[in-house]
Amino acid sequence: MKITGISTRLIEVDAKPRYKDGVVPLGRPASWHYPLLTVHTDEGVEGRSMAYGPHGDGAALADILHAAYRQEIVGEDPLDSEKIWQKLWRKQRHLYNQRDSLLGVIDVALWDIKGKVAGLPIARLLGLFRDRIPMYASARSEFYTAEEVFEEARRLKAAGFRGYKLQLRAGPAADIPRLRAAREAVGEGFPLMQDPNASYTLAEACEVGRALDALNYHWYEEPLPDQHLGALKLLAARVRTPLLVGETVRLTELPGYLREGVGAMLRGDTLMKGGITGLRKAMAAAELFGLPLEIHTANTPLLDVANLHVACSAANTEFVENHHPVFRFGLKRHPLEADPQGLAHLPSAPGLGVELDLDWLDNHCRGARRS
Fold first, then answer.
1. Where are the domains of the chain?
2. If 0-12 CB within 10 Å is exposed, 13-18 middle and 19+ buried, where does residue 214 land?
3. In CATH, what class is 124-345?
4. How far is CA 362 from CA 10, 31, 325, 365, 370, in A?
5. Model-level pTM?
6. Has residue 288 got a pLDDT over 90?
7. Phi and psi of 49, rounded to 5°?
8. Which tens digits make up the pLDDT trace of 306-319?
9. Measured between alpha carbons, how far is 201 from 206 in angstroms, rounded to an integer?
10. CB distance 129 to 312 below 8 Å
11. Residue-wise pLDDT tens digits, 108-141
């Protein structure tokens, strides 16, 4: 089997439902364009994946896939996914203007082909550990008041989710009352998480961290930029709540976190760690150091399905993330729609194992290209 080419379709998604009261913040695009990738082969088996699109760069990402990556994979056997991954990883050395996400997008499509050829879900090719996994829900807005946080946390717990994560980044005075409201809503023993997206200073991170200690939060995610290892080590020494770190760094930077003992937990996903191949390498490295690696959402339907396959192939991850419903589009049924017990179920069909909603995708396609 040989790869003969790729095609991309730009899928438009209305951004307004993502934001509180449907108001798109100043400077943010009102619609997103996600490149839907198909890798074609001479035997007619196709692999699908999708790049991330909410930052106004979707069309550019599609161009890069065709201009920089297509020639590297045409003629290769898609079953040789490790060989292709290593080839593309070496190419990343010279692609100074971008990170590793498009390598990961291609890798997911190759694994989709491998699963279809084998007649097995990707998780079984990786080595199945389980066929379902708990989900936590992320807050639908970072701008909720304390009262709105209380109501949402209580509602999502009642819906069966196994945890609730806030993404508050307005500073200690505004954030701590809302963090407290979430605990009051769900009671003791229910996992709560806080993710300020690296927006705090060290002093602010310490102040919020002490509040999280008192409220028994489950983890403290990216309180400071991932690259600030010294500050993260200082913070880890001053708070009890486990730090979850490494979301935004390259796969090859994770060993530094493992050696230095920067955080109690690592973060990764198929978008930012080089696809299924890269994320599985990260999972194995963390496991050998006795650490969990919690899988972050990619906010991209097919990549989040790929995340689920990796999660079901590994013992050292507790949850998958259920983010805003606006990110679950273009599929007949998305497996990250929770069951009443708050579990995500692994698709049983080959490859990624999901069915595209072709009518919806056709109605939202804003451009197509094949090469």
1. 3-119+357-370, 124-345
2. middle
3. alpha beta
4. 10, 16, 20, 5, 16
5. 0.96
6. yes
7. -160, -175
8. 999 999 999 999 99
9. 9
10. yes
11. 999 999 999 999 999 999 999 999 999 999 999 9
